[in-house]
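Please decode residue identities from the backbone states below.
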């Protein structure tokens, strides 16, 4: 019978799950909006790469509208300087002095002389301007010498009038030197670029950039926002549908931060880098770090999706999106494939080599395409420099990985290998104080690792977790049978309830020791979940048998949990129970081992220890087969070596 509060609790849990999904998705949306806001608008203008004296490698270019030919910055600056020769700064006369003396501070007078001004315009009481020679202006010191008394400056700089006159003079200098009519040919394919055609090309690009910025800003920005949200939405759907186990706030923040760092970094670079081209992306933004850092902590498909989402968002504002997407997808895929199981730092060097080869091949292909049918082809030596830079960036990715590992308390394959080192100080202490438990942990580690490999779980993670799952037993090792050298078991001298609590306490003690030695939270999870919410049945059954008429509280004989929630945690729970149970078998036949494995795991399933597990029925059967094969191999019958029978005749 369903109770009303149970139904209410289910509904509340359902709604809280929906709110949690909305909250996580909103973080992705905010990152998308932030990246869109930083996108530079001028990158939508046409982009060409050209140089005087070299052939035009693109198709014939014809003016699609009337546009002016802008003067070069050098020539425009010369004309403006010539026009400003007639400019004189404006000053206001604040007080008349005898003999029409003009006085200003020594600092202002020095600035006029340094600026090369020979005259200034002085506005008097009737607002009439009068030109006076700078050489006739006195400072307070020279005025005192001439007039025999202290005199305050009577000329005050009029910045507003001076700026207005200056701008009006500059406005008379045209920034253009002619027009190109719509339909007029600018340059033909293969034609050598001259200084004149270069200026026409520069003017064409500049005119379109200004036109886009003024006329098409809102539609372009709206379109970019929609594309950015669509890309981020695809990533959100992937996480929610295919990687639900990663749909946690910590992981969401990791993905969003890594996307924001590279999108924001790219857009800021584009804003403050003149004539932004793809080479700047290579030099300033190491996009290859995205798939590397993501793959080290998560699976290959997730790394590929995060990398894809990032480069698609960046490509929205790229001047040459096709080559950018192709290059980054290629080298990112190569990096992910080569880091399938990163367990050594040296693997980054191998990955760097693969990435350099991929980048070099794509760059050479791009050069061939740019030739576009002409017979002229020249090798661009900067490609080698960019290739080397790309390889160096891969090697330096480890610092980026370490930063994210410490920030988000994630665990990389390298860290797991280091944790699995049985020669560490903590493992030495474990082996010395609790040798039987240490050997048990090694056996559990071997069983769990093989099972994880079979179902494509994280073998490195489960191996490290298995080594530390019983670390709490080093506090009181003599209470556990595997560490007892005689038949004396101190637990049997206690009450059943107290003995059960001693056994259960090894989980809490293990968590305490793990935190003391700064083990990662993911390893501590193995310690807390390897018994789930199961019972210490030996002492529970003994308590029930001794008190047949009393209802025994099961909570006093049960572990606090939580239950395992990942494939790796479930595998460890199975392996721990199987290895411990295998030691109590009287016969190690295939039939006995097979029955024991089936019974043990089926019993855990019936007790709902795996109710929060992502394991499938197929995974469970695969794990059973691995355990059976490994245990049969461990406990197989060994050949009895024959002894040498002495010849009695020879001995006589």
């Amino acid at each position: 019978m369903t109770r009303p509060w149970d139904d209410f609790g289910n509904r509340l849990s359902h709604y809280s799950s929906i709110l949690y999904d909305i909250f996580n998705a909103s973080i992705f949306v905010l990152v998308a909006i932030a990246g869109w806001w930083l996108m530079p608008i001028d990158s939508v203008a046409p982009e060409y790469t050209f140089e005087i004296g070299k052939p035009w490698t693109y198709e014939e270019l014809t003016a699609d509208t009337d546009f002016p030919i802008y003067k070069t910055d050098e020539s425009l600056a010369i004309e403006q300087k010539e026009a400003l020769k007639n400019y004189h700064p404006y000053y206001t006369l604040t007080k008349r002095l005898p003999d029409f003396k003009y006085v200003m501070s020594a600092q202002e007078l020095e600035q006029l002389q340094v600026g090369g001004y020979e005259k200034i315009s002085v506005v008097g009481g009737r607002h009439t301007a009068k030109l006076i020679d700078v050489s006739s202006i006195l400072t307070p010191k020279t005025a005192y010498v001439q007039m025999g008394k202290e005199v305050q400056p009577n000329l005050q700089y009029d910045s507003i009038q001076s700026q207005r006159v200056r701008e009006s003079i500059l406005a008379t200098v045209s920034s253009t030197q002619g027009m190109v009519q719509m339909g007029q040919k600018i340059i033909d394919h293969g034609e050598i670029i001259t200084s004149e055609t270069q200026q026409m090309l520069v003017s064409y690009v500049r005119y379109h950039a200004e036109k886009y910025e003024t006329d098409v800003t809102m539609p372009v920005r709206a379109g970019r926002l929609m594309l950015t949200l669509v890309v981020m939405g695809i990533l959100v759907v992937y996480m929610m549908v295919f990687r639900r186990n990663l749909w946690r706030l910590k992981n969401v923040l990791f993905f969003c931060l890594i996307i924001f760092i590279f999108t924001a970094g790219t857009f800021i670079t584009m804003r403050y880098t003149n004539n932004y081209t793809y080479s700047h992306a290579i030099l300033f933004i190491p996009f290859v770090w995205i798939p590397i850092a993501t793959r080290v902590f998560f699976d290959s498909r997730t790394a590929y999706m995060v990398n894809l989402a990032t480069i698609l968002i960046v490509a929205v504002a790229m001047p040459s999106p096709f080559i950018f997407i192709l290059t980054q997808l290629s080298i990112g895929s190569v990096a992910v494939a080569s880091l399938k199981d990163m367990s050594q730092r040296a693997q980054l060097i191998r990955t760097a080599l693969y990435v350099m080869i991929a980048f070099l091949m794509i760059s050479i292909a791009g050069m061939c395409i740019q030739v576009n049918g002409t017979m002229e082809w020249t090798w661009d030596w900067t490609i080698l420099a960019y290739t080397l830079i790309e390889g160096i960036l891969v090697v330096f990715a480890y610092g980026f990985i370490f930063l994210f590992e410490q920030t988000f308390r994630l665990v990389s394959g390298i860290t797991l290998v280091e944790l699995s080192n049985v020669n560490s100080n903590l493992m030495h202490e474990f082996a010395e104080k609790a040798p039987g438990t240490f050997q048990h942990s090694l056996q559990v580690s071997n069983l769990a690792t093989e099972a994880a490999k079979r179902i494509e779980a994280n073998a490195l993670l489960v191996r490290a977790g298995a080594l530390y799952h019983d670390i709490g037993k080093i506090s009181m090792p003599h209470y556990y049978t595997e560490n007892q050298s005689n038949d004396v078991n101190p637990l049997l001298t206690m009450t059943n309830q107290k003995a059960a609590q001693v056994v259960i306490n090894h989980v809490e003690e293990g968590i305490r020791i793990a935190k003391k030695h700064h083990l990662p939270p993911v390893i501590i999870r193995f310690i807390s979940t390897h018994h789930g919410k199961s019972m210490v049945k030996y002492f529970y059954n003994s308590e029930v048998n001794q008190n047949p008429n009393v209802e025994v509280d099961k909570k006093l004989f049960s572990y606090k949990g939580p239950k395992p929630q990942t494939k790796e945690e479930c595998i460890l729970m199975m392996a721990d129970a199987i290895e411990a149970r295998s030691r109590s078998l009287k016969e190690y036949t295939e039939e006995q081992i097979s029955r024991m494995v089936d019974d043990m795991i089926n019993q855990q399933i019936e007790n709902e220890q795996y109710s929060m597990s992502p394991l499938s029925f197929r995974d469970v059967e695969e794990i059973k087969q691995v355990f059976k094969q490994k245990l049969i191999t461990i406990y197989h019958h060994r050949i009895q070596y024959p002894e040498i029978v002495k010849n009695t005749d020879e001995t006589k």
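Observation: Residues 275-280, 373-377 have pLDDT under 50 and may be disordered.
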